[in-house]
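Cross-posting from the modeling subforum.

Setting up a comparison between two proteins and wanted a second pair of eyes on the formatting. Protein 1 (sequence, then structure tokens):
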Amino acid sequence: MIRHCLFAFILLVPSSLVLAEEEAPEPLAIDEVLALGPLPVDVEMMDKAGHADDLRRALVGQLGDGALPRAGQPVTAFGQTREWQSVSPGTLDSERALQLWWFQLEADRFVRGHLELEGLSNAAVFVDGRKIEGGDKGHALDLRNGSHPVWIVHDGPAEESEPALAWQGSAEQDRVVAHIRPERRVSAQRLTNAETVSDLAISPDGRYLALAYERRDETADTDIRRLEIRDLQTDRIVRQWTADRPAALAWSPDGSKLAVQTGDSLWLHDRDSGRARALLLEHEGIGSWRWHPDSRSILFSWVKKDDADTEKRRRLRALEDRWAGFRDVSQIYQVDIDSGIVRALTAEERSVNLHDVADRRVLLSHSVIDYDEPPHGLTRVFELDLEDGQKREIARLRQFNDIRYADEGYWLLAGPGLSIGDGDTTPEDVTPNDYDTQLYRLSTDGTEAASLSRDFDPAFSGIERLADGNLLLSAVSGEESVLVHFDRDADSLAIVDSGVAVMESFVASRTSPPTVVVRGSDADAPQRVHRVGLDGDNEVLVDSRESAYADVVLGEVRDWTFTNADDVEIDGRYYLPPDFDPEQQYPLIVYYYGGTMPVNRQFTGRYPFNLWAANGYVIYVVQPRGAIGYGQDFSARHVNAWGEYAADDIIEGTQKFVEAHEFVDGERIGNIGASYGGFMTMYLATRTDLFAASISHAGISALTSYWGEGWWGYSYSGIASQGSFPWNNRELYVEQSPVYSADKVNTPLLLLHGEADTNVPVGESDNMFTALKLLGREVEMVEFPGEDHWILDREKRYVWWDSILAWYDKWLKDEPEWWEHLYSESSDS
């Protein structure tokens, strides 16, 4: 494989900066930096006053936030203006004054070495936003493949030697390029720390938009959160303040107040005066809530924690009793806005969910323990009269997602297998996938449900009732998450152009037509917030590309579909490295869905395809049969199949993709999946030797143990294996379980798992790890202490992502050094 630098401009740097491959590692002199200074700061006074280190860190944090510096760019401080200048370190004059240097180190693989500084007074070095302490050999750096901004704050030249900078690699392969151009590749820190909008709320008249922002400052090692209220008529920010991350926010129906939940408190912010007051202060366990339509009260759920003594023994009352918080009970309460008086509305045996409020009626539900039929649970939907406290049961449903009031009856989201509905469009001998959620009109008495989406392929995930009685819904449509408008008079569904491929959330005003605001992203574009009109109008309100990714160079994302052997079109897309050269050959990583959700076109997430592409890989995302959002016939191929159809599509798709793209090295293909996708990785390893390296995160190796031990295993299997159990379908539970065919595995396999995973217990990876170790196969297993089904801790996530790329570097690029650094034989890590 030919190794090449990321950006075309790097190929043009002076030959003196790049060492020949066959030479021993000579120090790389860094001959050019961008310099800002001298700054109008008395360094002697700063040192005497204290906090000098904090001030240096703050300087990097302020000037390093956002776009990277450029030559000629001015900075004004204390009435004096300085410009960033391109200089040689050796030309630093003798004045003792605070100065800032910046440059980038570019690595096209994992490298280790030292940044050597000479002749600088009180130099503080920051790389990727973090301070690096110096040692005998300089500042030790372990650099991932990618772009690494370097900031050096110093007080001018030291007396003993001339200022100089150099990179000293630890071994022959530890080579970098130094440059001062602002272009950079995307990094793990950029993907996790960039400012995004975490929540939205729009006033009923559509004029005011509340936005909750959050980001992380790597230099200060702190999270920064703020709330703002924006006037959409004037595009002015009328109020802005810092706050904890809100759990939820919503305007009162009359538009006079914004309710904001932070932690266990619910605050009311007056729109006109700007005053804030606590409506519920430190009420531990408050959950979801809704304004009453009259704006005089808020209905909310409140959890009562179980305090039973289970220290010495614990009898499981039900399968659900394994779930964290099962014995905690959440009831519905109402708080009066003026007085702050709270009253309880329900006192059920099980936790109650709040769905909708209409004048004196409240729409509620709670779960009933009932294992008689798949998916081995029951939802009781009922109504509460706020005036007399009377309750009326509406229905008991095995398929249930959400419900709202209609003019007559109710709007219901539920699976196609709903017994009182007509949503199933599959042939008689095919079992529908009940994750393929449909829209129904449920009768007032709850006995009949008429499907409104039988001929509509997208699968619904959320629903809101508009002021005119129509609906806005979120839906999975292939690789996209879309906004759907339902016209009740025409009984018609139409996808609205939201301006983003993957909609994260939406809010709508109470006007007719409504003003709609969405937030979301695209495969090749980070988060944006759009104002959307049902007539096709569209305006960008917030674009994080401008604020957080201005200098980031991304690769191209292209669609690619194929028709499989059964004449079914299989959707997909692929990501190219930022410096893509069609004359080169690249290793390939293949990714596929977990659960039944297709892999959407979100910009980032748990599996950052843009980051993988920036590390020199082509990424092929394939959507095999079984995924929702492509119609019921397609999604039904998930039921009682456990990889049968999906494996065929992944293998065939990978083979055809390689055949169709000469820039892919067919001998260097990796594959990866998580949860059900992790199961697919293990299963594929028993079916084919197509892949040169495989990764399974939280994968299932034995269907029976997952079914019985996973907290949700029995209920997920109630849909994915509907009607099949270990005692009546032994062939499914054994033949489709990868561990029973472990002797067929020849591919190097990395097993990743959260040590506290309750969905897919870590024993599922233990099974396969044990089998392959005894068989003498190439296998590694990495656990993440305290982490559940996903790796959510920020620092552990970085290690998780590093482990994925290091594994592929080892097997697909013949570069084992990163993996060996992370997991050396002498280390206990």
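Protein 2 (same layout):
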Amino acid sequence: MAEIIRNGKAYDSADVKVKINGIPIEVKSLTYGNEQDHQLNHTLGINATSWSWGKNTPSCSMTLMMGDVTPLETAAPDGDIKKIKPYTMTVEFVNDFNAIVVDVIVAKFKSDGREVTGDMGLEKQYELFALSVKLNVFP
């Protein structure tokens, strides 16, 4: 079962499907969203007189089991997942109203490595370099 956190709302469902470039992948957890810059505008007084907004910054991280990242490393140039070109990740799940939600993320790995602990089921959280996060792309 995957855990999806989408703009702060958690969805736990066995129906979550994640695909990278159309290929299904097992994901332990996936967090993604957009953040937009905001600022207060001041004139000569001490209080702000207006506000404005700025650039959007997408973000994404995902946790993979080590057994699921190894095939990606094998297919990557020189075995380095950081060298994999930006890919399209689709996330499909059912929301609270039983409607299918499809989100599309364009991202790439910006780190590699291992996290070895005494726990069963080795996993690692990867911070991704997100180029785009689009929510509810399929009506």
